[in-house]
Amino acid sequence: MSRARSEPRARDGAHRVAVVVLPGVRPLDLGIPAQVFTARPGSPYSVSLCAARPGPVASSAGFDVLVEHGLEVVAGCDTLLVPGYDTAQPPPQEVLEVLRTAHAAGRRVVSICTGAFALAAAGVLDGLRATTHWDSAERLARMHPSVEVDADALYVDQGSVLTSAGVSAGIDLCLHLVRRDRGAAAANALARALVAAPHREGGQRQYVEHPVAVSSRTSLGQVRERAVQQLAQPLTVAEMAGWAHLSPRTFARRFLAETATTPKQWLLSVRIQRARELLETSDLGVDRVASAVGLGTVANFRAHFRRATGRTPAAYRSSFNATTAVDGR
After folding, report:
1. Positive or negative, the Cα torsion across 264, 269, 274, 280?
2. Segments forming the whole domain that contains residue 167
3. In terms of CB atoms within 10 Å, which end of the chain has fewer, N or C?
4. Taking the complete model, does pTM exceed 0.70, yes or no?
5. Angle CA 205–209–210, to nearest 5
């Protein structure tokens, strides 16, 4: 039996994350929020594991997870998260009621992988776009026609309701939550600690169509790494294709197949991500940030940045800078 330790009460000022452990819980899905949001020096988060009834909960891997708390901890949480579980077992009614109540109260409700089935069963996803593991997406759509299921998305952010695809996409989603709460620099630092990509472009399609990793001989990973090192330069698809010794058309086709996004879209996303970090961690003027990330004029930079983040660079900097403590509530 594996004993899952959790905090029974949040530290003062902490953003409280309650993780609901359902029968047949998938251990990797459970481990992601436990690792990302675990209390550590300087962490703004506090994690509690809970279940319909405290005690041992069978996992999908054949061992039990010993959960210390009941659903009463949900009443004091800021974020309620449901990891993936064996959907052959319907969630207990008391769990569905807790999900409805938390959502109605404006708390952030999140699922990883098949945890979306519990949110859908509770009616939390009605009328919303959502995702789950690609292998379960068709069944989710069939069971819950009021949910707009996006089978390709790594994760879907609908404001107070967020869903992700399986396992590694759960890391993407949890890092996205940290990015929303604490900014890009904090999320990037955590990603480095987890040895994970701070932000991935594309969708599940790249994993469905290419279940076997692309060999290093043909992968465009080195091209992407080189581009990241030269963001200040006015890079073109033709230039990047030249690095790979490919025609622009072949390069674009392979890039799309490998990342499920176009070279231009990927490059813009990386530039915006770098700009966010510079706005948070430096006192560079907007003009110098625009130049450093290769977005040209201030007007062009502001337009792209606002389209991507919903904020002006100045507003973003005032919300997420090195001295601002934001807990996402």
Report:
1. positive
2. 2-194
3. N
4. no
5. 110
